[in-house]
Design a protein that fits this description.
There is one protein chain. By secondary structure, the chain is of the alpha/beta class. It folds into 2 domains: 240 residues, Aspartate Aminotransferase, domain 2, CATH 3.40.640; 128 residues, Alpha-Beta Complex (Aspartate Aminotransferase, domain 1). 40% of the residues lie in helices and 13% in strands. Strand 4, helix 6 and strand 5 form a beta-alpha-beta unit. Helix 10 runs parallel beside helix 14. The structure holds pyridoxal-5'-phosphate. The site of pyridoxal-5'-phosphate has 14 residues, from helix 3 and helix 4.
Length: 383
């Protein structure tokens, strides 16, 4: 069986976890937490990066840092994971869904302005499959209307838009290190706090440190900036164990190697399926030339839902696990309760019904890759 996903293991994970234990520092903010954050701050050129317990909690922190009031509106695609919306529902916001573009499956930047009202506060672009949204245009809209931008870059670690790291462009960027993502610590994430248009992000950085330290000024205390620590604001427990950061560090150390390995699989799939796309049997992902994706995912689109159902069953019979993605949030029970769809649903439902994701993970063997390619090709030959 070719699995759909195998969690990444780069080699030094156990040795580093052992070291975290020997350090007698298994809570957060130990050696490996610091290594991971410092590496990301340098590599992704962000003012502050804090490890969190998940992509979900990094989105929750970002939502809190936006200082919303009940009834404020947040614009996002409907084609995304529930956490993107939950983070903002949690702070009382109303979710306004906007249609996606069929070529990248990202939010359609041309449909955002129509959705803006006097209650709009935030835009949340989701970099689907690690391919960047049209950030120049999204940042222009945000600037013009005085909105914050929270990038859901859960899938976008190591991806780039016009030379800038995904997650480092909006006011806040949110990464996931779940086991299904390119770089993992089992469950984990990070929030990036960025400087936008020369605005100093220091107030947000201080607030985020307090929030992550259960609402106390413990970070300042540890740096000797205050002589006792106390409860100063709302907070929660968003800090992961250093043992998990140790697992992640083993992969960040080899981030380029992991990225290249995944891209090689992605490129091989793309090349093998190009004839099918040229024959009009399937559609393949589009990556704008100014985006560097991270091969988070390889998707293709069948003709319709019916063909997709048969295709996935056919692959399974041949030992290949393929899956689909996201029942659009706006049509889900919670989506109906917490949100509304602005403009027409031209692509969200139709395109999500057609999309299939193929096995994609670090060190997918060339034999397994060939099994996938043969199974896909024979389905379209026989059908
Ligand atoms: C994975 C994912 C999340 C959630 O990340 P977790 O670490 O699983 O909490 C949020 N948004 C998107 C787009 C994701 O793919």
């Amino acid at each position: 069986m070719v699995d759909f996903n195998v969690p990444p293991y780069a080699g030094n994970e156990l040795a580093y976890i052992k070291r975290a234990i020997e350090n007698h520092k298994i809570c957060g903010d130990g050696e490996f937490t610091k290594k991971c954050s410092a590496w990301m701050e340098r590599r992704f050129d962000t003012r502050r990066c804090l490890l969190t317990t998940s992509g979900t909690t990094s989105l929750e922190m970002a939502a809190r840092l936006c200082d919303l009031e009940p009834g404020d509106e947040v614009i996002m695609p409907s084609f995304t994971f529930s956490s993107t919306a939950n983070a903002f529902v949690q702070v009382g916001a109303k979710i306004v869904f906007v249609d996606i573009r069929p070529d990248t499956m990202n939010i359609d930047e041309r449909k955002i302005e129509h959705a803006i009202t006097d209650r709009t506060r935030v835009i949340v672009p989701v970099h689907y499959a690690g391919v960047g949204c049209e950030m120049d245009e999204i940042m222009r809209i945000a600037r013009e209307h005085g909105l914050k931008v929270v990038e859901d870059a859960a899938q976008g670690v190591m991806g780039q838009y016009k030379g800038r790291a995904l997650g480092s462009i909006g006011h806040f960027g949110c990464y996931s290190f779940h086991e299904t993502k390119n770089y993992s610590m089992g469950e984990g994430g990070a929030i990036l706090i960025n400087e936008v248009d020369g605005q100093d992000p220091t107030p947000s950085i201080e607030k985020s440190e307090i929030m992550r330290e259960k609402g106390t000024d413990r970070s300042r205390f540890m740096r000797g900036q205050v002589d006792k620590y106390t409860w100063v604001d709302y907070g929660s427990s968003y800090l992961p164990s250093d043992m998990l950061a140790a697992y992640l560090w083993a992969q960040l150390e080899k981030a380029d190697e992991i990225n290249e390995d995944r891209l090689a699989t992605w490129d091989a799939y793309y090349e093998a399926f190009t004839p099918l796309a040229q024959a009009g049997r399937i559609e393949l992902p589009h990556v704008p030339e100014y985006c560097r994706h991270n091969a988070h995912m390889f998707w293709l689109k069948c003709a319709d839902l019916d063909e997709r159902t048969r295709f996935i069953a056919y692959l399974r019979e041949r030992g290949v696990k393929a899956v689909f993605h996201y029942v659009p949030l706006h049509s889900a029970p919670a989506g109906l309760r917490f949100g509304r769809f602005d403009g027409g649903d031209e692509y969200t439902t139709r395109e999500s019904d057609r999309l299939v994701r193929l096995p994609m993970y670090y060190r997918l063997s060339s034999e397994d890759r060939q099994t996938v390619i043969d199974a896909v090709t024979s389905f379209f030959r026989e059908n």
